[in-house]
Design brief:
The complex is a heterodimer.
Chain A lengths: L2 H11 L5 H13 L1 H20 L9 H14 L11 H28 L7 E4 L5 E6 L4 E6 L12 H5 L1
Antiparallel strand pairs in A: 2-3
Helix pairs in contact in A: 1-3, 2-3
Chain B lengths: L1 H7 L5 E11 L10 E2 L2 H8 L7 E12 L5 E4 L4 E9 L2 E8 L2 E9 L5 E8 L3 E9 L2
Antiparallel strand pairs in B: 1-3, 1-9, 2-3, 4-5, 5-6, 6-7, 8-9
Classes of the chains: A mainly alpha, B mainly beta.
């Protein structure tokens, strides 16, 4: 059996042949044992592959999915690296850290009071681990998304039943 | 004296509105009472990473959030918001789904800000509770 004939069998199995050609292949299969054997092998292979393809469907969009991962990374504490400062640097640090903190707080207050642009501060206390937050600072919109699958109890597909 | 009096006066109630929105890829809603959301909210929704193309307003509730009491906002039988005015345009919103507390959020809600809470609904659609200042 040549390569073209093998491809035609595969195309027939995949339902890709036009009606006329499909009928020809069916007739061919009725009289050619080799073709039947290959057809059976192709079908078994396809079924095996389909059986192993686990359909993983995210309950939310790709952006939300990655947003959750990003939040989790931010939430994790970075590993502490041991630091052995030089004695002189250590002495400077004692002064620099509180001074820097005061300067940072003062800057934040000044920007908050007098600044033209303002970044809205958000505190979150989410009790539900399936909920996560997305900020769009340009449109000043905050989205809290509850990534549960749709409620089957509300399976009546009318919108009124879904939300009321 | 007038300035002192006005400074000492209690903060006014926050005038807010909560909207229940249905998100879908269908062009129309089977419920004739649903109307497409306004252009401002539609634009905000479109700027979020959501997969739906059309949004319909199911319910709208206007209410005043006072400093003294929390305000219950029943958007549906299964979804209720409890809004507390913390002063200085800050609010605390607690979401209840089927009577269970799902999340509590504290944030500033100025006239430009919009808080949207949402989730999946059957038929690859979505629900949204939108909270914003009443215009």
């Amino acid at each position: 059996m040549d390569y073209e004939a093998q491809l035609k069998l595969q195309a027939h199995l995949d339902g890709e042949l036009p009606e006329g050609e499909a009928r020809e292949v069916t007739n061919w299969l009725a009289r050619d044992r080799e073709a039947v054997a290959l057809y059976g092998e192709l079908r078994n292979t396809r079924q095996a592959l389909v059986g192993y393809e686990v359909g993983v469907a995210l309950p939310e969009s790709r952006e939300f999915f990655w947003s959750k991962i990003e939040r989790e990374i931010r939430r994790l504490k970075p590993p502490e690296t041991p630091v052995h400062p030089a004695p002189l640097l250590s002495a400077w640090r004692k002064w620099l850290i509180p001074a820097g903190t005061v300067a940072a707080v003062a800057s934040a207050v000044l920007v908050g009071v007098f600044g033209e642009t303002r970044i809205s501060t958000v505190e979150t206390a989410v009790a539900d681990p399936a909920a996560f937050t997305y900020h769009d600072y340009s449109s000043r919109t905050t989205l809290v998304w509850f990534s549960y699958p749709a409620d089957d109890e509300l399976a009546d597909r009318t919108p009124a039943a879904i939300v009321e | 004296m007038l300035a002192v009096t006005s400074l000492a006066a209690p903060a006014p109630d926050l005038k807010l509105e909560a909207l229940l929105i249905w998100g879908t890829n269908e062009g129309t809603s089977p419920d004739a009472n649903h109307k497409p959301v306004g252009p401002k909210l539609k634009r905000k929704l479109e700027e979020l990473p959501l997969k739906w193309t059309n949004y319909f307003e199911v319910k709208r509730i206007r209410f005043d959030a006072s400093l003294s009491n929390s305000t219950k906002v029943p958007l549906s039988e299964k979804c209720e918001l409890v809004v507390k005015n913390l002063g200085h345009s800050k609010i605390e919103v607690t979401v209840f789904g089927k009577g269970k507390q799902c999340a509590t959020r504290t944030q500033e809600l100025t006239k430009e800000d919009t808080l949207i809470l949402g989730g999946n609904a059957p038929g690859s659609t979505s629900w949204f509770a939108v909270l914003r200042r009443a215009e």
